[in-house]
Amino acid sequence: MQTPEPQQRDRSSTVTDPGAGSGGLAETPTPVEVRVHADPALIPSVRAVAADLAARADFDLDAVSDLRMAVDEACSALVPLAREGGQLRCGFAMAEGRIDVICRVPVTGEAALRQDTFGWRVLTTLTDDAQVLDADPEWLGIHLRKQRLNP
């Protein structure tokens, strides 16, 4: 009797189209996802996960720190816009010497994220790419990408 081979998960998942699939931004698949109540007091937990994942992916200390601060800034921008009782969801995908992060919150009405603020400038300085994800009317998010110096 032959034992079946264990299924291997594809660890090279990248977040290229956050709106793909039927779930839209609410159900964007990522290998690691943290869900917490949209409360500023819980942002340090998400920030710690980001730093840990970057360190485990052999990012240098400066890049780990940059990602930690960028995730903190993204979450801090999104939490005040979250629908009451909503969750802050942050997904992390590691591939080819980079980390993609999607932070998102459920919103009501015309919630918008301004890109002319000091906070947004910080995001674009600390990461290799930062984009607002607002195609789904019920969710608002930020996609961050940080590249390792030596992939």
Automatic annotation (TrEMBL):
GO terms, molecular function: ATP binding
Keywords for this protein: ATP-binding, Nucleotide-binding
Coiled coil spans: none
ATP-binding recorded as keyword: yes
Protein name in the entry: ATP-binding protein
Keyword set includes Nucleotide-binding: yes
Chain spans, region Disordered: 1-28
Histidine kinase/HSP90-like ATPase domain boundaries: 37-102
Gene3D superfamilies associated with the record: Histidine kinase-like ATPase, C-terminal domain (3.30.565.10)
Domain of life: Bacteria
